[in-house]
Amino acid sequence: MRRSMAPTAHCHRNKLLSVLNKASNWIQRAQMHRGKSLLLGTASGLVALAGAQAADMPVKAQPVQYVKICSLYGDGFYYIAGTDTCLKLGGYIRVQAESNMGDGGVAIGTNPVEDGQGRFTRDLTNDINYRVRGVTSWDVRQQTEYGMLRTYIRFGAENTTPKNTGGGTQFSPFWDLAFMQFAGFTVGRARSFFDLFTYYGAYTYTNVRVQGDTDISGQNLWAYTANLGNGFSATLSLEDPTTHKSFTFDATAPGFFGLNGGTIPDNAFTNNGGGVPANFGFRVPDIVGNLRVDQAWGFAGVSVALHDASGAYYGTPNSTVNGHPADKYGWAAAAGGQFNLAGGDTVGVNFAYGEGATGFVVSQNANLQLYNSNTSVGAGWVSDGIFTTGTHIELTRAWSIAAGYQHFWTPRWRTSWYGGYAHLEYNSTAAGIINSSLAERSVCARPFAGLVGNFSAVTALAGNSCSPNFSFYQIGSRTQWSPVSQLHIGLDVTYTGLNTAYKGAGIYATNGSRPAVTLFDDQGVWSASVRWQRDLYP
Known about the structure:
Distance between the termini: 115 Å
Order of helices and strands: HEEEEEEEEEEEEEEEEEEEEEEHEEEEEE
Structural class: mainly beta
Largest sheet: 16 strands, antiparallel, barrel
CATH topology of the largest domain: Porin
Radius of gyration: 40 Å
Helix content: 10-25%
Strand content: 35-45%
Strand order of the largest sheet: 3-6-7-8-9-10-11-13-14-15-16-21-22-24-25-28
């Protein structure tokens, strides 16, 4: 019996163990499931709690792009934060050393400021001049329903070796451009719309004398420009005449051209009794018209100007009881352009002619005086016109041509060649008035009575041309190296030649430490300048 029951008991025991194992596995799975649920519930609770707390905290602002490029007007413009207005900053620092130059690149002997150096003496005149200049510019533009609104200003300060002194420096703040452009109008101080091509700046460091271009100084004006399409534009501009005024002289005033041709600043252009031009003030603006075309190949244009060359009153003193000459207007015209060549090279040319508007053709202050030791002198005097008691105003004629070419040897090296020629001419009546004012010993004809000695700086002797006409020219070359971006180092060499007025035997009166000389002859001078310039912004 016991043998027959053993297998049955063993089978039941095995079944019981199997059930117990299954129950254990189920319990373990149930515990694991309950643990996961607890963890998930806990995590959900924490997330909900964190969300509730985050709802009570301030939301962090998205980052703002404070410097945003404005591509509407070319490179270098950025949006002013929070506006649709674009700003471009510009400027430079310039250090320049000049030999036989002064006043920022003016060749000696080519205006009243530098004529003292043209004496080539040791009496507080400079062979070397320094200038350090810092400039900043702001160009602000935005689009309006009338087109672009632009505001531009350029200002700075400079420290310069003073004129006609033995050394030291003088500090001068300045601004040369400040204008607004809106709906075709340009108002403020800008470059004259008469100007077309000049070789100053892009081609030379020399302050150009053979042109009346206002690129350096700016010009007060009110102008309107009509866009004609395809790059063509036409402008009418009303401009302050002061910048282009070369003065109308009354020959009854003693030394009407100023002492020795207006060459000493303290005695030139001071009062009507001592070498002043007999102009009145600003009565009529210069009226300038311009037509030009701008294309990828460059630009070209023509311009005309009407200039008030009227005088004040007859006689000395300058008085209302003396009467005055009839009003007289001068005019000038110019044509010029610049053309872009392969490799970044450029070439430009400008031609100008004027009658009674000399300052549009040459620098308004281009009175010249150059000595050759104690043996000879060259001189020339600029004016818009000349008159004497009872005469009309005789307008001065002038013409000039200027050209420049710049070649890039490499992106870092460039060389330019430039030059210009100017001629000033007094008609026979004007020459007669001037000759009648020469020193008493002069041999020139005297058709006008009562003027002998008013221009006593000049005595014409036998063999003198008796002609106040003169011409001058400037030629030169500049090489510039840009070792790194926005740094420019260059050397500029210029020759100024003068074909003198009153060529031949004659006495030029004592001038400073220079004794009188007895020959008027052509002269020339070499000038040079070295410049380091760092452009502050691209």
